[in-house]
Structures are given as structure tokens and as C-alpha cells.
Write a structure and sequence with these properties.
The chain is α+β, with helices and mostly antiparallel strands. Helices cover 25% and strands 18% of the residues. It is built from 13 helices and 19 strands. The protein has a six-stranded antiparallel beta sheet with strand order 1-2-3-4-6-5. Helix 4 packs antiparallel against helix 7, helix 4 packs antiparallel against helix 11 and helix 7 crosses helix 10. The radius of gyration is 39 Å and the shape is elongated. The N and C termini lie far apart (127 Å).
Length: 529
Amino acid sequence: MVYIQDAVHGTAAAEDSLIGQAFDNKYRIVRVIGQGGMGVVYEAEHTTLGKRVAIKLMLEKYMGDSEAVARFTREALAASRIGNPHIIDVMDIGTAPDGRSYVVMELLAGSPLSKVIEDHGQMPPQRAINILRQVLKGIGAAHAKGIVHRDLKPDNIFLLDHGDSGDFVKLLDFGISKMIDPDLQVAATKLTTTGVVMGTPLYMAPEQAMGAEIDHLADLYACGVIMYELLAGKPPFDGATYAVLVAKLLTSEPQLLSEVRPGLSPKLVAAVHRVLEKDPQARFPSAEAFSQALPQLTSASAMELASTQASGKRAVVRGSTHSRGKRWPVLAASIAMLAGVGTATAIIIASNKSSTSTSTTTDRVEPAKMDPPVTPSSGLLTIHSIPPGAVITVDGKPFADGSTMAVELGKHKIHAELIGYHPMDWEEEVVQGVKSSVPLRLSPINVTSNTPPPKTGPAPKTGPAPKTGLAPKTGPKTKGLTPAEMEALTKAALPSEDPPKVPPPPPPIKRQDPPKTPVTGPDTKPNPY
């Protein structure tokens, strides 16, 4: 570490003998201010200029290790080649009186990002985005020079104390950086080979953890882990041992940020999850592309507004936690809720002219919302189904019903399915600066068969049953008939326009009451009852 606060007192006691000494008659050692894995960091003063500097002196145990010496001096070589305001400035290298190598760097006043996370936990989104954008500027400059850091983590990100101007980022420790250019790699001495893992496990990309050859995309993955930790207050993966951690890294998907911390901008959630893809080619292609994908917010109130508007939405990502079986899931850019430049929406209305419906469906009424921001190469696609609940895909990727996604400009294939309704396919061209509404109306399936309708009562006892309009059970099949034959067969199957003649009911039988007194005669015996 290279910072003024939090001096390491235990190390100071061990290195007190160097305090007051001058290295190369130029740098007088003042005090110990920190210690890293390979060296102790001192505050020193240039004897001629009076300027305060930081000196990183290699630990004694590495003095005889030529590979460690080469790695130690690599930091000076890499940082000096980049020349970016967000990279710590390395001014000199030399050898101490006892033979150990040292590097002279600018002295920084502030705190490492790891301490900020430890003290405050989850960071406000606006501050996290501001910090990450500066990290991406610095690491993008390194990539442009053919240098991969390979050990990006909060300990190696330093926040300068600039008062009211906010955080200013400096990237530290290029000691295990990799030169992509073969000539530069030879010149700097290649310290690792394929199969050797270099870096900090919590922030390693999957390919780096497996010891495979890596490029700048591994640094972008580490930036995604750092951003996830800033927003969630914890890294996406952890484990009690290195083996457990790497197993999770290779086989599991991180929990959605929107579930860990509801209310985050869906565009921010989607960007972070995309850069955490296990497949390097599915991540953003560059640090600049990652930076552009982050929400363009300039005030805390704007971030609060975005979070409030997004609180009822869910970021749609490719290969989310609902698709655990896919090893290399594909994440998509997602919903956004702030003002943007160009939008396009798909209006998909399908109707089945041969079917009718007695039910009435009304469009859902959504609250007014602002258009999400888009990049010059993307637009907005908004789709919701009527009735709601359809399973929607755009170019084969999941698209949440009722959501808005930022997609690339051009034509996109849309597919929707809902049980009880006809599936739909549609091609919509997303054009920058074009706005339209977004109903997706599905047509219900009209189920027809030769099964007679259910009986409503007993059939009449006499007389033939009236025609029901059904085709005979046996007869020619309709498949393959000409239109004329089909029309004739349809007319024959329909009931007659005239109602069937029903014979008039018989006249009612007049009932006669029996006589009140029995009739008796000479041959008739009285009824004893």
C-alpha cells in the first residue's frame, strides 16, 4: 500500500534501522507507512527538491530470488509506460545500501477502497459508478499499452482525498501485470507460464482461476466483481477454501444484484452481470464499452429517481439464476429508466379472423415513465402482451413481459407464446429516435371438433330428432377438397335457415269428475266400504 494514513507500526519496529538513511544520496527515509506482499513502503523526502515521495523496498527474503526481483521491478516498468492520471506515477528505481531493490512512487493521501468498503458497506450507486468509471479509464489506458493488470481488487484501488471534488482514483501494484506484446513480455521477463495461477481468488476471472491464458477481459471481470461488491456489500462468490471458491466460480451464477439490493437501476444491474459472464467473449469487449453501458447519471437525486422508478422492475439477464444448468450463460443488456436519445418499440397485433370471442380484453394502464438512455448504437424495445404473462424472446433471448430493453439498432426477431393462445413471430426494426407504443395482442385458440355439444335435456320420444348441424360421422374427409367443394360441404353441414316444422300438440283431454253418489240398481250391491 502507498498511503499516509494507518501506518504499520509492527513493521516500523522491524525497519527502524533504515529511518534517517538516504538511498542513493537522494531519498531520505522518514517513516514506515505500509507493507505489501513483496515489500515495505516508506515515506521519504527528496534531499534536493524537498518533495515527499513513497519508496517501496523489497523484503529481505526475496533478495536472492531473481524471478521475484524481476516481478518487483516490473511494476515500475509497467506503470511508467502507461502514463495515465489514474495510474500511480513511478518516478525512479534503484538499489538500497543493503542490496535490495526499491521503487520510488508518488506519495498518496487518502484510503484504499477496501477500507472504504469495510467502514461503510454498500456504497451509493452514484459514487460507485463514479469510482468504477475512473478505474476503467486507468485500466483501459493500460490495455491500450498492451498491459493486463491481473490483480485488480479494492486493495489496489486508492481513493485520494480531494475534498469537495469527490473521489479521485489511483490504480496500484502492477507487480504481476502481463505484457501482451511478445517483445515487451520478453523484455520484462516472463514470470509465469500457462497453468500457474496469479492474482487474488475473490476477483479472478474463471479462465484465470483455471490457469489458462488470459487477456484484458480478465481485468474487466475483476472490475465487475469490484462493482458488485460496492453495490451489494459483498463479492458475488466466496468460499472457506480456495477449492470451494473456485468451484463456485466455475459452476455457479451470482445472485442478481436486484435481489440483493432492490431498487438499483436495471441498466446498472445488467451491465454488471454481463461483465461477470464466465465466457470471456460474452463480456464487454473493452473497458470503454463497459463504462458506456453504465447509467449516465450526474446527481444523487437522479440516481434516487432511477432507483424509485426501477423498484417495480426486474433486470432481464441472459442465463440468469433461473438457468443454472448452462455453464456459459449469455447475459443481455437490460431495462433502463432514465431519459435517452432514441427508442423503438414493437407493436404486434395478431387476430384470427375465423374465430370470435365473447370476452373483452383491455390494455393495461402503466404509470408514466421516462425513456431509458441509449448509446448511439442502440435503441429501446418495449413489449408487453395482451393478455399479460406471455413467454417472450427477442433473437432467442428472454425478454420479460412488460419490460423495456436496450438493444442494438437493426432488425430483431420476436417470438411470444401463451397457453391457450396462438404463438406469434414478428420482426421489428429498432431505429434510433423512433418512438411507438407497445401492445402485443395474442389471439385465442378456437378449438373445433366433431364432438356434439353436451345434451341439455331428454330427446323427444316420438318423431325424428332435429338436425344439429354436425357433419355425418362417416363420409369424405375435408382434407384435399377444392374451395368450391369445401363451400358446398360447409353449406350442407349448416342447419337450415327455416326452423323445423313441429306438429301442433293434441287438444287437451277434458277431465270428468265421478258422480258424488254411487249409482245402485237391482243387480248392484252396495259398496261396503
